[in-house]
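Quick one, tokens below:
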């Protein structure tokens, strides 16, 4: 049989078609169509099957990307799915929301050669969506039941991943989450045009069907203390993520109409589920008919500007203190936002917020990039005499997130934290300062990517399993 790969010279890069910007800006459905089978095989066949697969090296999960691309190119889709699924608990989710332009595709060898990267993310999405449709996604099958139980605090990607691995190992697993639906930011933070909610909910339901017990609308510190959960379980995992919004210090920051990004996105996603959201109905968290200004340059800011467009905003502007080349968000998302009518005001920073009963304008100043700071990035500094004003009826702050004060929230003063407020863990075991309490995901590494949370959930499951086995052995000897 002729080699189905190595066709990057004669076959051009082709992503799935996007819906027309005018049409997609009117709903929250995903913007990209899915590959047809022949197109997925054709695009997979562009892989160069290089000896050192930089795509896999730069994937936090080290997915076997060239191997499942080859299988897809050869029409062996079920095998491709099984291989993709062997390293990731959520491949179709990563295929949708990973910044492939900064990870696997950005490090594709044929991208360096000028032929355009293999469309890895789109193929990954295609493979697993096909698997769900064909019934290839198998249920969670627990191993032989053990006498130990595990509690997971936080139902985001790190917590769900660890819960799945621990259940497969035979542990009784309970997941505790403050929200009324599992999924964390996958459910309430990321808009449907990037990740339709059914994609998340079917993953959660699979875990429930596998015997994992979910305690939703459950707050540690309110419904149970950390000590009480430690008494219930043989080991705990803290995987809460980071939810404390970073602040802006400027006159008028507390005005009505100046809102937090996550509040804005959560309200929108709840409406998508059909919930009644009072703050949306009264206009507090609804962009319809408003001049919207979003402050920030990360992926959350991109989610906010594109959500505002879909809610029927009169205008949407994004203010970011650096230039386009130095923004932290995905360039693809910037392009999508521009297509949908968002205006970016680069090298600008807010100085004050004008308000009567509610915000009326953002007073800002032009910025320039000076010398590099401690992180190596050029630090923004104000341009003299460059103030300007942007009309605004709704301002969304999207400057990123820090860790909440978990020792205080959880009633666990012995829970050690770093100077950034994230949980301090032993790098070899991922255990916190409390015996038998582990931590993973953003609450350890700070605000990061979903794929890193999945990686951390996979790793911490190994460490918890080893610790629980040693604990069981010790208890048997003591008996």
């Amino acid at each position: 049989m002729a080699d189905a790969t190595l066709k990057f010279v004669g076959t051009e890069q082709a992503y799935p078609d996007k819906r027309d910007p005018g049409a997609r800006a009117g709903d929250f459905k995903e913007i990209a169509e899915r590959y047809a089978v022949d197109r997925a095989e054709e695009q997979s066949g562009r892989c160069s099957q290089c000896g050192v697969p930089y795509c896999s090296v730069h994937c936090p999960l080290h997915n076997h990307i060239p191997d499942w691309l080859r299988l897809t190119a050869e029409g062996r889709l079920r095998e491709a799915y099984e291989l993709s699924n062997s390293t990731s608990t959520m491949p179709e989710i990563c295929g949708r929301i990973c910044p492939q332009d900064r990870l696997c595709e950005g490090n594709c060898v044929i991208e360096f050669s000028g032929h355009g990267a293999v469309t890895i993310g789109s193929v990954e999405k295609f493979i697993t969506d096909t698997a769900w449709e064909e019934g290839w996604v198998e249920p969670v099958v627990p191993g032989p039941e053990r006498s130990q139980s595990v509690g997971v605090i936080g139902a985001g990607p790190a917590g769900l991943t660890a819960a799945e691995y621990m259940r497969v190992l035979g542990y009784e697993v309970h997941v505790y989450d403050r929200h009324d639906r599992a999924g964390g930011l996958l459910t309430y933070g990321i808009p449907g045009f990037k990740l339709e909610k059914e994609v998340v909910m079917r993953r959660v339901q699979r875990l429930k069907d596998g015997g994992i017990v979910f305690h939703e609308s459950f707050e540690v510190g309110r419904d149970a203390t950390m000590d009480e959960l430690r008494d219930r379980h043989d080991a705990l995992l803290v995987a809460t993520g980071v939810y404390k919004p970073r602040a802006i210090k400027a006159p008028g920051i507390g005005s009505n109409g100046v809102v937090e990004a996550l509040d804005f996105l959560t309200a929108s996603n709840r409406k998508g589920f059909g919930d009644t959201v009072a703050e949306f109905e009264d206009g507090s968290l609804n962009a319809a008919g408003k001049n919207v200004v979003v402050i920030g340059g990360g992926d959350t800011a991109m989610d906010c500007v594109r959500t505002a467009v879909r809610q029927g905003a009169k205008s949407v502007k994004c203010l970011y203190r650096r230039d386009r080349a130095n923004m932290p968000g995905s360039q693809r998302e910037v392009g999508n936002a521009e297509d949908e009518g968002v205006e970016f005001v680069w090298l600008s920073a807010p100085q004050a917020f004008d308000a009567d009963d509610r915000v009326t304008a953002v007073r800002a100043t032009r910025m320039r990039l000076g010398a590099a700071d401690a992180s190596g990035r050029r630090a923004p500094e104000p341009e003299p005499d460059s103030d300007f004003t942007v009309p605004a009826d709704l301002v969304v702050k999207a400057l990123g997130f820090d860790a909440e004060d978990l020792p205080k929230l959880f009633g666990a003063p012995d829970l050690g934290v770093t100077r950034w407020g994230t949980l301090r863990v032993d790098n070899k075991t991922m255990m916190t300062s409390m015996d038998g309490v582990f931590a993973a995901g953003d609450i350890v590494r700070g605000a990061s990517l979903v794929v890193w949370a999945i990686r951390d959930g996979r790793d911490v499951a190994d460490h918890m399993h080893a610790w629980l086995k040693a604990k069981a052995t010790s208890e048997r000897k003591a008996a």
